[in-house]
Amino acid sequence: MRSRSWLASLAAVLALAPSAVWASPAAAGPGGDPLVITVEPARQSAVIGDRVTIRAQVTNRAATPTDPLIAHLNVASLTGTYVDLEDWTAGPTQQVDPIGAGASANLSWDIQAVNTGSFDVYVVLLPNGAGSAGAGPLVTGAPSHLTVAGRRTLNAGGSLPIVIAMPLLLGALALAVRLRRRRS
Amino acid sequence: MAVAGQECRDLWLSGRGPLLLFAFSLLLSAFTYLAATNQAINFLEQREAVNLTLQIAVAVGVLVTLLVSADGISGERERGTLEGLLLTPVSRRVLVLGKLAAALTVWFATFVVSVPYIWVLGRGVSVVGQALLLSLVIGTVLAVGLAALGLLVSGLSASNKVSIAVSFFILLALFAPTQLPGGLPKGWFGDVLGRLNPVGAGLHYPTAILVNGHDWTQDLNYLIAPGVLVVLAIVPLTLLSDRIVQLEPGSVR
To answer: Which of B20, B38, B45 to mutate to probe the A interface, most A CBs <10 Å?
Structure first.
């Protein structure tokens, strides 16, 4: 009975271990440094076309400074919408200078919600030192959940009178000036 | 004042000014209709649509102003009308300032034409007044600087074609960086370049206020470059006016 419960505990630990490691933000910092990414806000809503700011704080909990890092913001759709990151932000990638022991670096991205749906916006840290570039694993933080509602903002019909009337008016004016000049 | 009045009559009663305005309104109409109907860009938040229209109106308005001023002295020379103008009993400084004032009427006319377009896109949100004020202030500063530059180029150019080509190239060179995909390169160099370019910096200011919701004072340093352009163009224009308003082209000695 006792050995059975021990086996059950072992099985539970083994089952949970990979997810615990995966979820630990400090598990895979560049050069073995434990880095933690905190993203704010955790949850927000927007209307299509709105600009939202995503802030991230990267904390180095190690006793040694980190290598230079690359912080990359990504947007993943949770509703199957195709996401073209270039449309959301022109600068998803930011260089992060080495972070001292126990210090933090603050980053922010202004992104524009160009699709409707439910999205997770997350930040990934990549090592960019002379020896650490290209090495993994990468560090990521909890995502910021973004819900984007649709809206039709412009009224084509409402603009039509101005769009037609202005050139007609100015064309008539230009013609009248020409005719007047020709007569005189 | 009399010179400016005469120049304005030449510009507007000859039919050149009204024709330019007609072309300007066609462009704004096409752009406004596109902004309001195109499904691909219909997601644009209203403030952004207003800002885009404002940018087009200011950019094209100052372009037209620059081209009119670039024709100011070299064009008169080629048409053989400069001699008559030089007989006017006023100083050459007054002549160039009169031409500058006449060229600026083109900018103010394009601004008036842009008002209904900005209104139709921005009604319902409280940015129309802000957008119009920004357009008037930024556009006027840019128009004064570029019109003075155009007159300077016109006075120094060997022919009207050269004057217009050089002026057009200058504006294109100043405007092109604002159209780079993704904007200027990030970092201090891109930032400095963006602030040094009077057209880019001037057009950035309304975007910061209308789209990004910044305070009016937050990005004031972006207006330094347009202000410097005004000084750098007006001062030599007035100082060199005696030399550049000559019957012989490019006669600065």
So the answer is: B45
